[in-house]
Every structure is written in structure tokens, then in C-alpha cells.
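User: For a teaching handout, I'd like to show students what a predicted protein-ligand complex looks like in C-alpha cell form. I'll give you the sequence and the SMILES for flavin-adenine dinucleotide. Please answer with just the structure.
Assistant: Understood, here is the input followed by the structure.
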Amino acid sequence: MTVVGAGPVGLVLAAELALAGATVQVLERLTEPAAAMKAMGINVPTAEALDRRGLLPAAEQVQRETLERMGSFGRPGDSRFTGHFAGMVLDADLVDWADPDLAAHDAVAGARMVPQRELEALLADHVARLGVPVHRGVEVTALDDTGDGVLVGTTAGAVRTGWLVGCDGGHSAVRRLAGIEFPGTDPEFTGYLAVADIADPEKLADGWTWTPQGAYRYGPQPGRVVTVEFDGGPADRSAPVTLAELQASLRRISGIDVTLTALRGTATRWSDNARQAATYRSGRVLLAGDAAHVHSPFGGQGLNLGVGDAMNLGWKLGAVVAGWAPEGLLDTYDAERRPLGAWVLDWTRAQVGVLRGDAKSAALRQVVADLLSTRDGTTYAVKQLSGVTQRIDLPGGHPLVGRHVPDLWLADGSRLADHGHAGGFLLLDRTPDRAFTRLAAPWTGRVTSVPDDFATPAGVLVRPDGVVAWASDSSDADGLEAALQHWAGVVAVRIGR
Ligand SMILES: Cc1cc2nc3c(=O)[nH]c(=O)nc-3n(C[C@H](O)[C@H](O)[C@H](O)COP(=O)(O)OP(=O)(O)OC[C@H]3O[C@@H](n4cnc5c(N)ncnc54)[C@H](O)[C@@H]3O)c2cc1C
């Protein structure tokens, strides 16, 4: 099994495959991790995925350090993560944090400000601990799906592998080589994210400013600049960002003769190019993360969407390799992830609509700003951004089915998430006679039963990606066996059980 790309998505996928028992390697063309500035924070499903694999303390430490770095630009001690819509910052004080969806996923609140570079370092350690080799300086240049495996051409020679997953970013070579179409909408603007030395920073207002040319943001740390210029999109997206280019764009947008004297670190160029792969699977080749979908970073969704892909795909592909995957399991990857990807593309497109500099967009922006100044409006947007409302359409009548499992505290003081570090399914069993555990006994090895003495819900079957596959509020095991067979495969059931 080969994963192409050691970005956040490739690393999460490699780890999940290893936990599912697959032999996996990662091929990465860069000799060192990328230095470019990208994602600043993670959403609830990503934080909960880290939590289930025992990585929450490390992520919380990153958040503490990040908030400290933000210093006076941040709100000291306030780790409530809200985000923004087209630069309209969502006010944490307006959010109804008691909303049942938000309150049900509060345990990871200490790990939301986790910048991409630190996240990748944390994931690289995780992958190393699992013994997965990451071969750096190896670029994939060709592939041939032979039906029983994939012959992969690389700059270090040919590799034969059972399955190939392209987690190789928006310009994915794997997607191109597999002949997968990438339809969508063209970019309208060029954006930059950089930290710069600025001779006269007092000329820039903190926060977001909209102008007829686009928008810019100064902060939330000294020298950090984000720009959006409606210029038809970048001519060359991969050329390194220069100081002169960034300064010129910032001056055009702001109309201020601000002077940048140096770039600190690697600046990023981005756009609102929005595309989704026509299929996430072609034979033995699959796509995940930016390789499967690209869009503007407004609302901080791309990394999170990709990590969700990796969590969804990892255990399914692992089950195929291990030989116990139920019929059609791998096809559920595209079916379950595509609608969410399409939603994210539209969420970012909607923001482009209110960011344009013309009078109609400005009027629309005011309407949205008014809505976002209400408790209901802000709470709605924060729920969408945080991922707590994500739901997959799965068989089963309980309201939890298809949702990410909420925080579930157990009588011994642990949380259900604490029992998921090794991967696999979790079955919470609160029946007095452990009836659910007995029913699931034939799936031992794939399903870990967690007995508990609290009352409600009485039973929950959680897939390895954190999605609830079955739940019951009573000792009635109705539907549990069917759910186990549907997701965890058919097993030989002992007669006389
Ligand atoms: C300015 C900016 C801000 C952002 N902010 C956020 C945010 O706040 N929240 C959020 O969720 N997302 C954000 N994103 C999006 C996020 O950065 C991406 O969605 C994320 O990096 C995707 O991860 P990935 O692993 O799919 O791809 P990448 O991170 O692009 O990793 C792909 C890897 O594959 C390697 N590779 C490429 N081709 C080959 C090849 N042929 N052979 C071998 N290796 C190859 C690359 O070197 C790279 O290491 C932001 C993006 C930008 C640009």
C-alpha cells in the first residue's frame, strides 16, 4: 500500500492504514517538510480524530503555544475558536455555546488553534511511532493500474504496490496520471498569506478591511497579512512569492503606501479555484485531501476536509487489504465524502460572492453582516464551520447514527475516545448483563467493547473514523447485529451463542 504525499492528509491516512494492519509506505517529493504558511486552526472532527488516537495532549500544547505567540493580538485566555465568513469575524460572545450540537463536542476545545506546520510535525511523530516509512525526495511521475496492483514510476525507480492513494495536493500528479477529471469553477482573485517586516504597520487597521479591489487583513499577530485581490487569479501559482509582489498587491487593495521590508518565512499564494474530482476512486487508485478537492481557504476547511477523507478511507482500505471488508465498503468512501466536499466548495464560493468590490456585493455583505451580528446567525455559522453538524446518511433510526460520536464520559472517569487509540470499532455497552458485548463477541479483534455503568445512551457502535454506526437508548439490541455485519464484515457466528 502506497500513499503519495506527506502533507497532513497523507500522514493521517498512513497512520490509519497502519492501525488497520496494512503495510504502508509514504512517498514524498520534498526532502524537508514544506515551510509555507497555511492552515491556522482545525475543526471539531479533526480535533476529535486526534483525540481518539491519543494525540490530544500534544495538540493542546500546540494551542497553548500558539495563543501565547499571538500575544496581544489574540484574546488572552480565550481559546474559543469561531473563525470568520468572508472576513466577518464570528464573535465568540454571540455564540450559543449551550447549543446541543456544540455542547456535545466540547472536550476538544483546547485543541482548535493548531497551525498546519505544527500539526504536520505532530502527525509525522505519530506515523514514525507506528513504524510507517516516509521516503522523502521521491516524486511519483507515472502509474499503471494493472488490475491486481499498481506499478508506480518514481524518481527513485519503479515501485509495485497493491493500492495507491494520491494525497499529493491540489496539483495532484496521481489524479492526472489516473486520468481523473477535475471539474469546477475558475479563480477570480489572487490571495497572499505572509508574515512580513513592515516599516509602517500603524498605517494598517487591525482585522479585515474591504475595498473596491478586494480585502486585506492585518493580524492576529504582528506582521501577519492576508490579501484578496480580484485580478482574475494568479498567472503562475507555483512561483515563489516575492516581497515586491506582496507589497504591490497590498498597496493596490488598501490604497495605502505601506512599505514591507522583508518576508519572514515562506509566504503563500492562493486563489478561489474551486474543483472536485469526478471520482475519488479509479480501480486501485484513490484520491484524498486537496488531490480530491480544491477551493479558497476561506473558513479554514481544506485541511479538515482532507483529514476527514483520510479517516473515512483509512479503515475501509485497511479492511479490504485485510480481507474482511463487506461488499461495497470501499465505494462508500466516495459516496460519504463527496457531498461534504461539494458543500465546502459552495461555502467558500458564497464568500467570494460577498467579497467582490462592486456595489451589489457590498450590499449583500451588509445583509450577511447583519445576520452574523445576531446570536442565531453567529451560532449557525460557527456550527457549520466547526463541523459539529456534519452528518452522513447511514441506515439506522437513532438520531446519533451518521454523526460524529459526541463526548461520552464513562463511570470510571475516562471518555469513550480514550479507548480508541489503537483504531478499530468501539462498542459502548451499558446493559447490566453486557448483552451487546456478548452479541459482538464474534467480531473481537475488529470491535472493542467498552463496558460502562452510566445509563444513556445504552449502546453505541462507533466506526474507526468516529462516525456512529448504531445506537440504542435501551437494552434492546435491535439492529446491532445487522450494523456489525454491514460495517465490520461477516464472521463465523458460533451456534448456540
Ligand atoms: C493560505 C492558506 C490558508 C489555509 N488555511 C486553512 C485553514 O485555516 N484550515 C484548513 O482546514 N485548511 C486551510 N488551508 C488548506 C490546507 O492548507 C490544505 O487543504 C491542506 O494542506 C491539504 O493537505 P493535503 O495533505 O491534501 O495536501 P498538501 O498539504 O498539499 O500535501 C501534499 C504533499 O504531496 C507532496 N507531493 C505532491 N506531488 C507529489 C508527487 N508527484 N510525488 C510525491 N509527493 C508529492 C507535496 O510535496 C506535499 O507535501 C489553507 C491553505 C492556504 C493556502
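For the handout, you might add this sentence: The longest helix spans residues 331-355.
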